[in-house]
C-alpha cells in the first residue's frame, strides 16, 4: 500500500498572515510538490489568485483548489472530502497537501475528518499550524482588526455567531502542533519574548512556538512534523462547545445571523503611477469610509508585475507577485464592509 500523503492544516484569524506564510513556503519548497486546498470566503477568489502568483512550479494551477461554500468545518462531507479525494485520485499525487482554513474555521472537526474511511488509509495530518498576530496578541487581543474578523464571521451563515471570538482563538491553540508568532519584526525583543512565553504556557506540552516575520519560515520547520493528529484528538479537544461539534447536527441554518449587515463589491480601475502614494490613498479611503477589509491587485505603469494589496483595517501590505502576461492591465480591488457603504464615493475615491 502506498504511503499516506501528509497534510498540514494552517489556521489563524484574518490578518494573522496565513496566506503570506503559505506563499513563502511555496516559493521555497525545494522541489517538494505541494497541493493547496483554500477555504476562500465567497466567490471572489482573491486569496487563491495571490497564491497562484507565487511564480514557482510548486504551485501549479491544477494543484490549487478553492472551497467557497462557507466555513470548511461546516462543509466537510459535501465539500472538503470530495475535494481531497480528487487530489488523492490523481496519477501525479502531490508530495504534501496544505489546507488553509478560513480564519474562523475550527480545526478540530477538520482534523477528525481525516479518520473517515474514504480517506483514512491514504492521507494523514502531518500537523496543525496556528498563525498568531504577534503584536495584536501582545496588545491583549487575538487579531489586528477585531471588527474585520466579526465582519467575516457575519458573512457566513454556517458559523456560530454567538461564541466570543476569544474562545474560538483558544480552540485554535488547543488543536495546534505548532504556533507561529508572526509579525515579529513589528515587536521589540521584550514584547516578543513575553508573547512567545505566554503562548507556550497556554498550549499543551510539546507544541512548538516559533517566531516569524512575513511568514518566512523554512519548509523543513513547517512540514514533516509527523503528528498523525487525527489519531490524537483527545489531546487537542475543543476548549469550548460550538454548534459544529454535534455529530447529529443537520446544519440547518435558516435562522438569521445578520448576513445582510455586511456587503462586498469589486472596484476596477486602470493603471496607477506611484505604488506608495496609491497605498496611502487607499488607507485614507479605508479610514474615511469605514471599510473593514480591502484586497486585490494593481497595475503599476511601467511595471510588468502585478502589485498585490491586502488591507485589514488601515494597515496595507503590498508586494509584486507575478507578470500580467496576456491578462488585462487593470487594477481590481475587493471592498468589504458593513451594509450602507457609500459605494459611489468609494469607487470615485479609489479611481482618483
From TrEMBL:
SUPFAM superfamilies: Hypothetical protein YjiA, C-terminal domain, P-loop containing nucleoside triphosphate hydrolases. It comes from the Bacteria. InterPro entries: CobW, CobW-likC_sf, CobW-like_C, CobW/HypB/UreG_nucleotide-bd, P-loop_NTPase, Zinc-reg_GTPase_activator. GO terms for cellular component: cytoplasm. Signal peptide: none annotated. PANTHER family: COBW DOMAIN-CONTAINING PROTEIN, COBW-RELATED. This is Cobalamin biosynthesis protein CobW. The gene is cobW.
Amino acid at each position: 500500500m502506498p504511503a499516506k500523503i501528509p497534510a498540514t492544516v494552517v489556521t489563524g484569524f484574518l490578518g494573522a498572515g496565513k496566506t503570506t506564510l503559505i506563499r513563502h513556503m511555496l516559493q521555497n519548497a525545494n522541489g517538494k510538490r505541494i497541493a493547496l486546498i483554500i477555504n476562500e470566503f465567497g466567490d471572489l477568489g482573491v486569496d487563491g489568485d495571490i497564491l497562484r502568483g507565487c511564480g514557482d512550479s510548486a504551485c501549479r494551477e491544477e494543484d490549487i483548489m478553492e472551497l467557497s461554500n462557507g466555513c470548511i468545518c461546516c462543509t466537510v462531507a459535501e465539500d472538503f472530502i470530495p475535494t481531497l479525494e480528487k487530489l488523492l485520485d490523481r496519477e501525479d499525487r502531490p508530495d504534501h497537501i496544505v489546507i488553509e482554513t478560513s480564519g474562523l474555521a475550527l480545526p478540530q472537526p477538520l482534523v477528525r475528518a481525516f479518520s473517515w474511511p474514504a480517506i483514512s488509509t491514504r492521507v494523514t495530518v502531518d500537523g496543525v499550524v496556528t498563525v498568531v498576530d504577534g503584536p495584536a496578541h501582545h496588545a491583549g487581543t487575538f487579531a489586528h482588526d477585531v471588527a474585520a474578523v466579526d465582519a467575516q464571521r457575519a458573512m457566513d451563515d454556517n458559523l456560530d455567531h454567538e461564541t466570543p471570538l476569544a474562545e474560538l482563538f483558544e480552540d485554535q491553540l488547543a488543536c495546534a502542533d505548532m504556533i507561529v508568532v508572526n509579525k515579529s519584526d513589528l515587536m521589540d525583543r521584550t514584547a516578543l519574548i513575553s508573547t512567545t512565553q505566554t503562548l507556550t504556557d497556554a498550549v499543551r506540552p510539546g507544541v512548538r512556538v516559533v517566531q516569524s516575520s512575513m511568514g518566512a519560515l523554512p519548509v523543513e520547520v513547517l512540514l514533516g512534523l509527523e503528528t498523525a493528529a487525527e489519531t490524537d484528538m483527545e489531546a487537542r479537544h475543543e476548549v469550548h462547545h460550538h454548534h459544529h461539534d454535534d455529530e447529529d447536527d443537520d446544519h440547518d441554518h435558516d435562522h438569521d445571523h445578520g448576513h445582510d449587515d455586511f456587503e462586498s463589491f469589486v472596484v476596477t480601475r486602470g493603471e496607477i503611477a506611484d505604488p506608495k502614494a496609491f497605498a496611502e490613498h487607499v488607507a485614507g479611503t479605508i479610514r474615511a469610509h469605514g471599510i473593514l477589509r480591502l484586497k486585490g491587485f494593481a497595475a503599476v505603469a511601467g511595471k510588468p508585475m502585478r502589485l498585490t494589496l491586502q488591507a485589514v483595517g488601515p494597515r496595507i501590505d503590498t508586494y509584486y507577485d507575478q507578470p500580467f502576461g496576456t491578462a488585462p492591465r487593470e487594477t481590481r480591488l475587493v471592498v468589504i464592509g458593513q451594509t450602507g457603504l457609500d459605494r459611489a464615493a468609494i469607487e470615485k475615491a479609489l479611481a482618483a
